[in-house]
Design a protein that fits this description.
The complex is a heterodimer. Chain A is of the alpha+beta class. Chain A is 46% helix and 21% strand. In chain A, β21, α15 (687-697) and β22 form a beta-alpha-beta unit. In chain A, α9 (451-465) crosses α10, α10 packs antiparallel against α12 and α14 runs parallel beside α15 (687-697). Chain A is rod-shaped, with a radius of gyration of 67 Å. By secondary structure, chain B is α/β, with parallel strands linked by helices. In chain B, the strands form 2 sheets. Chain B has a 7-stranded mixed beta sheet, with helices on both faces. A two-stranded antiparallel ribbon of chain B has the order 1-9. Classes of the chains: A alpha+beta, B alpha/beta. The A-B interface holds A 58-59, 61-63, 65-68, 70-71, 74, 134-135, 137 and B 38, 41, 44-45, 150, 152-155, 170, 172-173, 175-176, 179.
Chain lengths: 746, 181
């Protein structure tokens, strides 16, 4: 098509086409007509001349016949009435001029027929000569010379008229074309504007007004149908897009909510997408530091080769998660689990990769905590299992040794041996207690205490623990908040920390104990535990000893871990401290530097309840009594020992080695029993069940539970249930008597 | 030799004179030679009715001369060298009415002054082309009058007489003859 035509409106195209056709038809038609008319004009003139020549010739037959020259000239003169005839001549049958007539003086008169000129179409004159015949006989020749001036004038007028007509027709054609084009172009222009409007507004719900039943009408109908389809399709697309957006939103939120880092790379491993939300948690300021870089460049050099090999395998098939160590912007190492897969197109050709990177720090920490808990559980089970029998045995040893000590004179050689036995038994009992404390299996009786007050009590004991070259500094915080803890546990903490500090200081040094009120306003995560915000009382225990390496610090709370010589440490000291602190909902921080010393800072939660009367305010009392006591203990020897102790101190004692025997015994005893002293774990019935049975008969009876380790029967999570009395095995007679007196006089 | 030459000249002159004398005696005047030619040329523009046997070429076209023959042998010469209507020409010098009625063309000599009425009544309404050279005759039903004009011969036609006689004269002839009215 002509390029110019492409850019003009269809109505102008139609006008142009109509005009072109019309002009062509008019020009061709008029050319034919004009050429034909011009020929006709010429022929008419020739015919006119011929007619005149014929007529004059005919009229001249008689003059020629009768040699009547005057007559001939008279006839020729008649030609003068014909405007375009200039000259007329008659020639005899032998070709000689007979008569002539001319309007132009001195015009050329041919003397004979051989001189008659031929007509030149471009010349100003037309020449005609015709023979004069009558009844088959030639009488002569007539010659006529005519001017073309009139013919030319007529032709010019004709051409002018025709030109005006053609121009008029052109104008009419243009007008008609402009009017007629609307028939075709208007619906098309409407359609064009309609489509333009649709394209601009993208509104496919509109419809074209109905047109006729011609092709344009069909086009309109088809267009409307197409619009309906598009509107339908658009609606479907909108719904699909909405679903897609919802899906995208879902996946975006999922990706945002995931604690992992999700990255997408090209086939070379260059990162082209990363979910931004978790970037800071991984130690990167923003994703600009990540986008465009190669995934492998974030790994430690050690892991890069392995990662490259795994990526190559992954591009073939899924290989599952692998662990790598990343180096973040700050230079920290982060252990991560990377689960990746290849992205493939419809032809299963890989075009990229996606990786989910999970920070394993928390997991590792939890694993470590779980391992610690499992260790403690194992130790606890072991300790619990052993402590029961072991404490019974120790109870017998300590009990009888204590009784024997009273019987033997201090001067006797056996006395020293007996003291050694008692010391060894106490050490054994202490070891058992440590195990139970670490395993949080010891029965504790928390009371509200002020750490500053407790430190006064322990001051002398601590000085005994450390040697003279070590200076003990105690800094007590002002207006210290109270905490709730079993004082026995506090003793264990201070003893263990003091022992460790002493052993860490070789020669001269200082141990500083400090108490303070602390408010934790944000969570603190340590290797050992997580600290929730709140108000705490801290007990800091600092020494100027040898300090610890990071590796040692990571293990100090593990049971049976020790850096001391075999005979000096049990490996349970700090594990016990840790267990006690955890049991009291506290936490512990350790700061240490090799050669500079170590600080343990223990956080005890502040007590917010009413302050109870201190257990220290209870008055001293006599160890002897007269009340009736029923002892139930499945360890026969221990039973006998306790019976002996209590009987020797004035109590009336009934005893049974089994709960069933005790119940039978109760039926025979007429006198009310004041106190039931019972083991907790016994065959057939536990101490608590026995207490409940006996309380049915003696509603005012009091009960003292004795046991080698914590049991849920009398304590929940190691803390003695409310209203219950408990005595930890093993015990010496004085402790038993004191506890019995305490329970009876409560 | 000289004698012979004079004799030859004398005989030659005598011969020429003899010829001239004889010749002048038989030769018509130039005027009548032209008139004879006119007679033949009139027939070119006249059509005789079908019953005049014009189509029968075996029969002669009869030119009759009534009265004094002033043509000399001009008519005979004409008849010897030309045909009219593709017929041989027969020259008949009429002396009675029968001869007259046999003619296709009748030249009435001016000598027939006295008989003109009789002749005219005889040929009235007959397909006989009548020609005269006397103005006195014209008007009595004679068809064509030949008369001298400016040292030339001219003619006049009585269109009514021709029409009445059953002859048809060409319009060209009629126009040429009418122009002198």
């Amino acid at each position: 098509m002509i390029p110019f035509f492409d850019n003009i409106s269809i109505k102008y195209k139609i006008v142009c086409i109509i005009l072109l056709i019309t002009v062509f038809v008019i020009i061709v038609g008029f050319s034919i007509v004009i050429i034909s008319d011009l020929r006709t004009f010429k022929n008419d003139m020739v015919n006119d001349l011929t007619v005149h020549a014929t007529l004059v010739g005919e009229y001249s037959v008689v003059p020629l016949t009768f040699q009547d020259k005057n007559g001939a000239e008279a006839i020729l003169k008649r030609l003068s009435s014909v405007p375009f005839i200039i000259t007329g001549c008659l020639y005899t049958d032998n070709g000689q001029l007979f008569a002539s007539f001319t309007k132009v003086p001195n015009d050329f008169i041919p003397k004979d027929t051989s001189l008659i000129p031929l007509t030149d179409s471009s010349g100003p004159y037309m020449y005609l000569s015709r023979p004069i015949e009558y009844q088959g006989k030639k009488y002569g020749t007539i010659y006529i010379k005519a001017s073309k001036e009139l013919l030319d004038k007529k032709i010019n007028n004709y051409l002018l008229s025709m030109s005006l007509i053609v121009i008029g027709l052109f104008i009419i054609s243009y007008w008609a074309a402009v009017k007629l084009q609307a028939v075709i172009s208007r619906p098309l222009v409407e359609l064009s504007e309609f489509t333009k409007k649709i394209a601009e507004k993208a509104d496919y719900s509109v419809q074209l007004e109905k047109h006729g039943k011609d092709e344009i009408g069909n086009l309109y109908t088809g267009f409307n149908t197409m619009l309906e389809h598009i509107a339908c399709r658009q609606q479907e697309m909108l719904e699909a897009r909405t679903r897609l957006q919802e899906s995208e939103e879902l996946y975006r939120k999922l990706i945002t909510a995931l604690p992992d880092i999700i990255i997408r790379t090209d086939l070379d491993g260059n990162i082209i997408f990363v979910n931004e939300t978790n970037i800071p948690a991984f130690g990167y300021s923003n994703n600009d530091r990540i986008i465009g870089k190669n995934f492998i460049s974030f790994l430690t050099p050690h892991d890069r080769l392995r990662a490259s090999e795994n990526i190559n395998k992954m591009l073939v098939s899924y290989i599952g998660p692998h662990e790598y160590t990343f180096i973040n912007e700050k230079g920290d190492s982060i252990e991560c689990e990377v689960n990746g897969d290849s992205l493939r197109d419809n032809n299963n050709v890989p075009y990229g990769m996606v990786f989910i990177i999970r920070d394993l720090t928390e997991k590792k920490k939890l694993q470590s905590q779980l391992l610690q808990a499992q260790k403690m559980e194992a130790v606890g089970r072991l300790a619990g299992g052993v402590a029961h029998d072991y404490n019974n045995i120790l109870g017998i040893i300590l009990g009888y040794a204590d009784l024997l000590e009273r019987e033997i004179s201090h001067q006797e050689p056996a006395y020293k041996m007996l003291k050694a036995i008692i010391a060894a038994a106490e050490r054994s009992a202490n070891l058992t207690k440590q195990l139970l404390a670490f395993a949080r299996r010891q029965i504790v009786v928390p009371v509200v205490v002020n750490l500053n007050d407790e430190l006064k009590t322990f001051d002398r004991m601590l000085e005994r623990l450390i040697h003279e070259e070590i200076k003990l500094v105690i800094k007590k915080g002002k207006a210290l908040w109270t905490i709730k803890i079993d004082p026995t546990q506090l003793t264990q903490i201070l003893t263990n920390l003091a022992t460790n500090a002493r052993d860490a200081i070789s020669g001269v040094g200082t141990i500083t104990i400090e108490t303070r009120n602390v408010v934790v306003d944000r969570p603190i995560i340590t290797e050992q535990t997580d600290v929730t915000p709140g108000k705490y009382v801290t007990l800091s225990f600092s020494d100027t000893g040898c300090g610890m390496s990071r590796e040692t610090m990571a293990q100090i709370f593990e049971p049976f871990f020790t850096t001391k010589a075999t005979e000096k440490g049990t490996g349970l000291g700090l594990a016990t401290v840790f267990g006690i602190v955890k049991q009291n909902n506290g936490f512990i921080n350790v700061f240490s530097e090799l050669g500079r010393g170590t600080t343990f800072r223990i956080y005890f939660p502040r007590f917010f309840g009413e302050i109870e009367t201190s257990y220290r305010q209870q008055g001293d009392f006599q160890l002897s009594g007269t009340e009736t006591i029923l002892i139930v203990e499945d360890e026969e020897e221990l039973l006998r020992m306790m019976r002996s102790i209590l009987t020797n101190h004035g109590y009336k004692v009934f005893s049974a080695s089994l709960p069933s025997d005790a119940l039978k015994l109760c039926k025979t005893i007429k006198k009310p029993i004041d106190l039931l002293v019972t083991d907790v774990v016994m065959p057939g019935m536990n101490g608590r069940e026995l207490k409940e049975q006996i309380e049915k008969k003696y509603d005012r009876i009091r009960t003292l539970f004795i046991s080698g380790y914590s049991a849920d029967i009398v304590a929940t999570h190691g803390v003695l249930n409310e209203g219950m009395h408990f005595l930890q095995k093993p015990f010496v007679p004085a402790v038993l008597l004191k506890k019995v007196k305490e329970v009876l006089h409560e | 030799m000289t004698c012979s030459f004079y004799k030859i000249v004398k005989y030659a002159i005598i011969a020429v004179l003899g010829v001239l004398v004889l010749g002048f005696r038989n030769l018509p005047e130039q005027e009548y030679i032209l008139k004879a030619a006119f007679l033949e040329r009139f027939t070119r523009f006249i059509e005789w009715p079908p019953d005049s046997s014009m189509d029968d070429t075996t029969k002669s076209f009869v030119i009759g001369v009534i009265g004094e023959n002033q043509f000399g042998n001009a008519l005979d010469n004409l008849a010897s060298i030309q045909k009219i209507k593709n017929k041989k020409i027969e020259i008949r010098y009429c002396s009675n009415s029968e001869d007259i009625l046999l003619c296709h063309l009748l030249f009435i000599s001016s000598s027939e002054q006295d008989n003109i009425i009789k002749i005219c009544s005889l040929i009235k309404n007959k397909p006989i082309l009548t020609v005269c050279d006397s103005k006195d005759f014209f008007g009595h039903g004679i068809h064509i009058l030949i008369f001298p004009s400016n040292e030339k011969l001219s003619f006049e036609i009585d269109e009514t007489a021709i029409k009445n006689s059953g002859l048809k004269a060409s319009y060209m002839l009629l126009m040429a003859g009418r122009k002198h009215k």
